[in-house]
Design a protein that fits this description.
Elements lengths: L6 E2 L11 H6 L4 E8 L5 E9 L2 E8 L2 E5 L18 E4 L2 E5 L6 E4 L7 E2 L10 E8 L5 E10 L5 E13 L7 E4 L4 E7 L5 E7 L10 E9 L4 E11 L5 E6 L5 E8 L1 E6 L36 E4 L2 E8 L2 E7 L12 E2 L10 E8 L2 E8 L2 E9 L7 E3 L16 E7 L6 E8 L6 E2 L8 E5 L13 H7 L4 E6 L8 H4 L9 H15 L8 E6 L1 H11 L11 E5 L5 H6 L8 H5 L7 H6 L13 E6 L7 H13 L4 E6 L9 H18 L4
Parallel strand pairs: 1-31, 32-33, 32-34, 34-35, 35-36, 36-37
Antiparallel strand pairs: 2-3, 3-4, 4-5, 6-7, 7-8, 8-9, 10-11, 11-12, 12-13, 14-15, 15-16, 16-17, 18-19, 19-20, 21-22, 22-23, 23-24, 25-26, 26-27, 27-28, 29-30, 30-33
Length: 671
């Protein structure tokens, strides 16, 4: 019997079943995650999932996906603009922040309808909340608060970020507990309710540059609360603490990066740690893998306690794995660490959040061939396995899924011996292969941040390209998270140059090893990534003659001076580290702004822009487009009514992706 081989089809024109509509709607986006228990002790999992532009809350248990909580319209916080931490729970009672007014509401099992716990600010979303934690008796909670206006509506010189205490029945006004620093966040309460721990940091640092872990005794009355003996425990002075959490025994745990990797640590004993005692705390597990992560959003978690064990997430070469440390929560190691997939732990490539309560662990996780979803494990230390609460089904067979491959490659100025990292996806579609002797075109994708990293989930927007015969690389350039503090700091002062070098080096490396066609490499990115894409095509050809063939910028930053002068509090001093302090380094800002030197662009450019964008106003895109027109550079410009910084309307997202495909097909002469 003769078995037919794969059909030879030109790269870039494979008959993918992933339409733009499927690719832009085929994956769930998740917000906050919480685990509680009902009166019978059965676990309850709440998760916020994007649906029709709203973050709808789902109530599930370990055996069934459950249902939408209809009393919640959209659980979304706006603290620090990026939000996060929009829902939390105590037992079977849910608390959340409604997006429209940013107020906290409660829904208990005996509540007929939601109970409003906080008042709206003087103007829309002028008072915001996030990342609440409820005391052990359920009568009060501590929450992150952000205030933009005084009570009379007068704008504050700068938004106030503090931690506030309030009763869970709404019987008293909030009381400020922690203030004084530019930012306070991540409150956690000890199991006995006697102690509070939190993070704080000040301008010009970002929380991943230098954040301090503080703790204090917490005195709670009927209508107010106060702290006694606050002290810095760890972090600060070029050390970034993150992810504080109290163990069931009342011991304070956290991560910090003073040994380069963001490692997990704990206080020496239960109770309130002495001042500065965390500075010498040994790592619970010494590896080169990061447990901590940049605090872009409120809430979230990367480790938790199950009995005497600790379950945690580690990032290794851009891939996330779940690890169990037997006996670590009780202060004693009772066995070797168990790395997934083993001991009932699921195999993952990306973990957005991990939360543990009692004997239940829930994660929002992506796996190599399954869409990102909520996974729940009951007593994972006993190897009982995990239930998938997701409902998304992937539209192609596993044989058509391209899986992530970490790569490391040389980069930087000649002779620097520097390396950078990336995640490579080869073209793949069942029954098809490219012509013999040819290499595929390459799409270089740039993650946001720039202090972020590529999410190695099963992404429809990546598979859209790989199933058409494109290769894709997501560049974890120097400055990306997940590779230690030293690697993150390699971008200091170098944004607009360092990551541009790395994106070029990634494509040149893949071309040099024969995995992609050097003449058909394109680069694309949104916002900060759009800035990098434009700077990459402004750069001269490399010594080997490599240069990108085209670029796509989606609401891309074109003017660094404008970005520095018109942004929100959280990022208002971010560019001090990425580029340099102003006004001393103004020349550097201008030299690295694409809008200042469009004459350097000599390849086709696709510009996609929202007309309501206040971060990158459309005027910036229009100036760029006019310059491309004047210089005779092949370009396309699509402007979208009603869209801001980041496209939300499904029809816009579909149109933008279809325009990008048509653009590459034309300029690369594919098919």
């Amino acid at each position: 019997m003769t078995v037919a081989g794969p059909e030879v089809t030109p790269y870039g024109s494979w008959p993918s079943p992933l339409t733009a509509s499927l690719a832009t709607s085929g994956g769930l986006r998740f917000g906050s995650l919480a685990v509680g228990h009902d009166a019978a002790g059965e676990p309850i999992v709440w998760s916020a999932q994007m649906s029709g532009g709203l973050m709808r809350v789902h109530r599930s248990n370990a055996r069934a996906p459950g249902e939408v909580v209809k009393q919640v319209t959209s659980a979304r916080s706006r603290v620090n603009e990026y939000g996060g931490g929009a829902l939390w729970c105590h037992g079977a009672t849910l608390f959340w922040v409604e997006d429209d007014d940013q107020c906290i509401r409660r829904l208990a099992p005996d509540d007929d309808s939601p109970v409003l716990l906080t008042r709206p600010g003087p103007a829309e979303r002028s008072t915001r909340w996030a990342a609440g934690v409820v005391g052990p008796d359920g009568r009060w909670m501590v929450v992150e608060r952000e205030v933009h206006l005084a009570e009379d509506g007068t704008p504050l010189d700068e938004a106030l970020n503090d931690l506030a205490w309030l009763p869970t029945d709404g019987s008293a006004d909030p009381v400020s507990l922690v203030g004084g620093a530019d930012f306070s966040g991540a409150p956690v309460v000890s199991p006995d309710g006697q102690h509070l721990a939190w993070l704080q940091w000040n301008h010009p640092d970002m929380p991943w540059d230098a954040a301090e872990l503080w703790a204090a005794r917490l005195k709670v009355g009927d209508t107010s609360a106060a702290l006694v003996g606050p002290r810095r425990v760890a972090g600060g002075s070029s050390v970034a603490a993150c992810l504080p959490l109290w163990s069931p025994l009342g011991t304070l745990w956290w991560c910090d990066d003073r040994e380069d990797a963001w490692l997990l640590r704990s206080a020496a004993a239960p109770g309130l740690p002495p001042a500065g005692s965390g500075d010498g705390a040994a790592a619970v597990r010494s590896t080169e893998a990061d447990v901590g992560e940049p605090r872009w959003v409120s809430g979230g978690g990367r480790y938790g306690f199950v009995g005497d064990d600790v379950v945690l997430v580690e990032t290794v070469l851009g891939l996330d794995r779940i690890v169990r440390l037997p006996g670590a929560a009780a202060g004693r190691a009772t066995g070797e660490p168990v790395e997934a997939p083993a001991g009932g732990l699921p195999s993952t490539t990306w973990v957005q959040q991990l939360v543990a309560s009692g004997d239940t662990v829930a994660v929002v996780a992506g796996r190599p061939t399954d869409p990102t979803s909520v996974l729940v494990g009951s007593q994972p230390a006993d190897g009982a396995g995990w239930a998938d609460l997701g409902t998304t089904r992937w539209p192609t067979p596993v044989e058509s899924i391209s899986t992530p491959e970490p790569i490391t490659f040389p980069t930087g100025a000649d002779g620097s011996q520097a390396v950078a990292h990336g995640i490579f996806y080869a073209p793949r579609l069942q029954g098809h292969e490219g012509p013999p002797g040819e290499a595929p075109p390459l799409v270089v994708r740039i993650h946001g941040g720039p202090t972020g990293y590529a999410f190695t989930e099963l992404s429809p927007s990546i598979q859209f390209w790989t199933t058409r015969g494109f290769a894709v690389v997501e560049v974890n350039y120097r400055g990306s998270a997940g590779f230690g503090r030293g690697y993150r700091r390699l971008l200091d002062g170098g944004w607009g140059e360092v990551e541009v070098q790395d994106c070029i080096a990634a494509a040149e490396h893949l071309a040099g090893t024969g995995r992609v066609d050097p003449a058909r490499c394109v680069i694309r990115g949104g916002s900060a990534g759009g800035f990098t894409a434009l700077e990459a095509v402004c750069a001269p050809a490399t010594r080997s003659g490599f240069h990108f063939a085209a670029a796509t910028t989606l609401y891309g930053v074109t003017d660094l001076m404008a970005l520095a002068g018109d942004t929100h509090k959280f990022e208002s001093r971010y560019l001090d580290g990425l580029v340099g302090p102003l006004p001393q380094t103004r020349d550097r800002y201008e030299a690295r702004s694409p809008i200042q030197h469009p004459e350097r662009i000599s390849v086709p450019v696709l510009v996609l822009q929202g007309l309501e964008d206040r971060v990158v106003p459309p005027e910036q895109a229009e100036v760029l487009v006019a310059a491309l027109e004047a210089n005779g550079i092949d370009h396309e410009y699509r402007a979208y009514e009603g869209e801001g910084h980041g496209f939300r309307n499904p029809s816009t997202v579909v149109d933008a992706l279809e325009a990008e495909l048509a653009f590459y097909t034309r300029v690369l002469a594919l098919g």
